[in-house]
Amino acid sequence: MESLDDKSKRGRWTSTFGFIMAAAGSQIGLGNLWKFPYLAGSNGGGAFVFVYLIIVLLVGFTLMLGEVLIGRHTQLGAVGAYKKLSERWTWLGGLGVLAGFLILSFYSVVGGWVINYMVRSITGILGTADFGAFITGSVEPILYHAIFMLINLVIVMAGISGGIERASKIMMPALFIMTIIVMIRSLTLDGAMEGVKFLLAPNFSVIDGSVILAALGQVFFSLSLGMGCMITYGSYLGKDENLVKSSLATPLMDTAIAILAGLTILPAVFAFGFDPSEGPGLLFVTLPSVFSKMPFGNFFAFIFFTLVFFAALTSAISLLEVTVAYLVDQFNWNRKKATFAMTFVIFLIGAAASLGLGIWDHITVLPGKDIFDSLDFTASNILLPLGGMLMSIFIGWFWGLDNAIREVTNEGTLPFKFAPVWGFLIKYVAPIAIALVFLESTGLLNVIKKLF
Ligand code: PHE
After folding, report:
1. Which terminus of the chain, N or C, has fewer Cβ atoms within 10 Å?
2. Is 97 in the pocket of ligand 1 (CB under 6 A)?
3. Distance 316 CA to ligand 1 centre (A)
């Protein structure tokens, strides 16, 4: 595969497989392994998973195809793509860049935690890990956050091709296999079945506006949607590729990995008597207990956290790349300067987010939310769904379904049986569903209901 950042000659995926691996690299990350299990844990388990799956089905696939087709059609990244299709919509690309920027600043803090756990498992002290004490500290977590951002910087500056892509083709399948091994250990613990029931048997009565908003935000986060990341990746697709096939494959893989991660973490939560609504620490407190019950536990832990690290890195790269490409494309910055500047600012905001879990935990940005949670909530639950909603409105109502379908079918040469269904979903279902979730979760829906 050619370099993604080759400005003079735009890169191309050499094959559909290359695209699928890169898109999967962006989508599969901490969202699946870290966020999904703890969100499910604190939002009613099966109820959350149920809502999540419905949203993937109706909105996830629909918008994935939407983003990829805009990218392939314009052969440009997010901001450039909207600008080309309609000057008046350029800001929508900008909104995505902002979301990516905010996400990476807390994402890289968690990336640092993962590196710390790799170090702990290789030095054999994983079992003694006190996660709470570690993340509330002021120096260590910020140091690891810096290391994570530095690795990210080096890769994005050097260009994405070569090493990292080749590595992720091995790492991603390895992650899949390792997760299954750890999952089997977790599922065979005494009392594990409670966790399986919790995750898979939905209790519909707990579904409310905030559960639905959490699931909606998580679908966007996990599928890297709503910020133009998949537009950018789609722009490296050749005109003869089958867009439908490639945009079905990766959301399926992503969802499978999220469920596997849930089936790894939650059974252990129940078996060891942890609290499923523990929050962001869930992965980090339960897994050391699972590994301690495995022969060669430290060895497995090291391999596992290394793979988690890789999954996180391939996602972080796509986030940083979106923000860097913005400076390079719109302000003609050179790549080096843009990457340094972005990395530095993201490091600072991330450091504040990290301190927000410790000595700054009294600081709230959004009501009742520390800096870390405020960043996550604003980006994942507001900006991404908003970006996705506006994109579907743009395709369905402004640019037009005819144009979109012509692009999907490669000018009418490929069949697209589901074109009417997809058109209906992107024109009506996706924007209305997202708008309803917003209205419900802000309480505005009740206000409106009362008016009528
Ligand atoms: N999808 C990534 C994950 O699950 C995070 C991400 C979000 C990456 C948005 C790019 C854009 O970890």
Report:
1. C
2. no
3. 7
For residue 10, give the H/E element and its range: none
Report pLDDT for 294: 80
- Three-state DSSP at 275 gives coil
229 Cβ inside 6 Å of ligand 1? yes
Q: How many CB atoms lie within 10 A of CB 433?
A: 21
Residues of the chain predicted below pLDDT 70 = 1-11, 127-129, 159-167
Cβ of 437 less than 6 Å from ligand 1: no
pTM for the complete prediction? 0.93
Q: Please tell me the distance between residue 312's alpha carbon and the centre of ligand 1 in angstroms.
A: 8
Q: What is the model's pLDDT at position 157?
A: 83
Cα of 205 from ligand 1 centre, angstroms: 30
- The confidence score (pLDDT) of residue 47 equals 96
**Angstrom distance (rounded) from CA 279 to CA 269:** 12
Is the Cβ atom of 76 under 6 angstroms away from ligand 1?
no
What does the chain come to in residues?
452
Please list, in sequence order, all residues whose beta carbon lies within 8 angstroms of the beta carbon of residue 286, skipping any fewer than 6 positions away. Answer: 265, 268, 269, 272, 274
Give first-to-last CA distance, the chain, whole Å.
57
Distances (CA, A) of 192 to 188, 264, 286, 297, 417: 7, 10, 12, 19, 43
Q: Is the CB of 232 under 6 A from ligand 1?
A: no
Biggest alpha carbon–alpha carbon distance for the chain: 64
